[in-house]
């Protein structure tokens, strides 16, 4: 048994989108027993959150699970929950069975979600990555306090599933988290996935705001004022979970380098290529049919994918022309579905597509970059164990291993699900043994084990372990599909960018002396979105050419607000 369960008030929220304050110091005994607090979040389409949970703005709590042992200095595991950065809470999954091994202390926790945690405007009040800074603050709390609970602050493994997997993959690259962990277990999610880091945070902020009926001018200043005016209830009404482009708008971002308490100032892709990060042991992997995450939308989306496959491309791809985009789109569609109309027989292609775009390819691309940077402590797996409790895949007669199935096996199960299947229990025992061995030694299988040897991964994503009964060490993992995407991303990858600087101009600035007709024609063009880049650039040059012709105070004062909108529009156009 585990001896105690604590719910501790972790770092308090300072501002709606700022980094958290340090946690409180208690001079008297704290009755830390309320584990029903969760952060503001969207209405949960997956019904992950029980009805008894209470949404609070001051939601940053930590749950510490202690084994029933007198031993001290135990390894610590900090688990980051998933939920697409939009939903979830620390105890979405629990790990009491791991704790009962009496070998580890486990910590789960809440962090801010959705726009509350991941609106990224690059301003002083909304710099971005509040939710990630909550995670760093929790790791600092663990570093300073876990010894009091019998844990070893010098032996901390960070683990996470889905968005939590992407989170720990990002924490590994962030200078703000250096020295706070020593091993990493990303379960179905990688730092370089499009859903893990916003490609263009200002574009996303505008798109999210429109879902909330925003009608402003789109400047960063106006967006910030709009978001600050919203209640949490309103802020969390946007529906972003079923977007066709496999992103969720509000997620971690690249911050402006001037940001205080910076979490991430370079793209994960560039950091991995530089090799400038701690090369700690990593247990990397995913389930064989992660794309089952989207299977409920197949009947709705199969026609849409036939008619407009471009809408399903990830936003971290860019193209020089529409013709080039159409050619690449055709190539991707034919790779997964052939040349015919997408119908029920294409369910496997559909599952494979979303497996690769969301989880498998980003993980394998990250592994490749790690290996090229000289990392030699990475253990790669595919979780492929099928059992009778898994649902039948629509339009087939087989069962599939869906998103984060390995997490469901290592943990106590979703909502503590307790199946009686003997093979499943055997797989649970085996998977927990592998996880515990990695947590305690940095290797998934010890050298003196009766299990198959598991060497680190090298080139070409080989070897990898198939986590099934029995275990099977195999060669390259999804090599054909990964090489296919490698070719596309080498030519068309769009690096994520930070928000540009917000523009605040003096209304008497000489740059505002400009012909009224030019202003209106230019703004009409932008508003109607009928002018291409060359037209915008040429007309902006015309605006600049006429700046000295009109006196601001005497002639343009009545349209001051209009001019400010123009300059805001200009800056958003030419800084993206």
Q: Give average pLDDT, whole number.
A: 85
Count the E strands: 12
* Largest sheet: spatial strand order: 1-4-6-5-7-8-9-10-11-12
The N- to C-terminal Cα distance equals 55 Å
User: Percent of residues in beta strands?
Assistant: 5-15%
Identify the overall geometry.
globular
Poorly predicted runs are 26-31, 505-516, 532-536, 543-561, 571-576
CATH class descriptor name of the largest domain: Alpha Beta
Please summarize the sheet with the most strands: 10 strands, mixed
Radius of gyration: 25 Å
Keywords:
576 residues; alpha/beta; Rossmann fold; ten-stranded mixed β-sheet; two-stranded parallel sheet; 18 helices; 12 strands; 11% strand; globular
Secondary-structure topology with pairs:
Blueprint lengths: L1 E8 L27 E2 L15 E2 L5 E7 L6 E7 L15 H4 L5 E5 L4 H5 L11 H16 L5 E11 L1 H9 L11 E5 L13 H11 L8 H10 L2 H4 L32 H7 L7 E6 L10 H10 L14 H16 L9 H26 L5 E6 L21 H6 L11 H20 L22 E4 L4 E3 L4 H14 L23 H13 L4 H13 L6 H5 L3 H15 L2
Parallel strand pairs: 2-3, 5-6, 5-7, 7-8, 8-9, 9-10, 10-11
Antiparallel strand pairs: 1-4, 4-6, 11-12
Helix pairs in contact: 5-6, 11-14, 15-16
GO molecular function, one term: carboxylic ester hydrolase activity
Protein name: Carboxylic ester hydrolase
Enzyme class: hydrolase
What's the short version?
The protein has helices spanning 96-99, 114-118, 130-145, 163-171, 201-211, 220-229, 232-235, 268-274, 298-307, 322-337, 347-372, 405-410, 422-441, 479-492, 516-528, 533-545, 552-556, 560-574, and strands at residues 2-9, 37-38, 54-55, 61-67, 74-80, 105-109, 151-161, 183-187, 282-287, 378-383, 464-467, 472-474. By secondary structure, it is α/β, with parallel strands linked by helices.
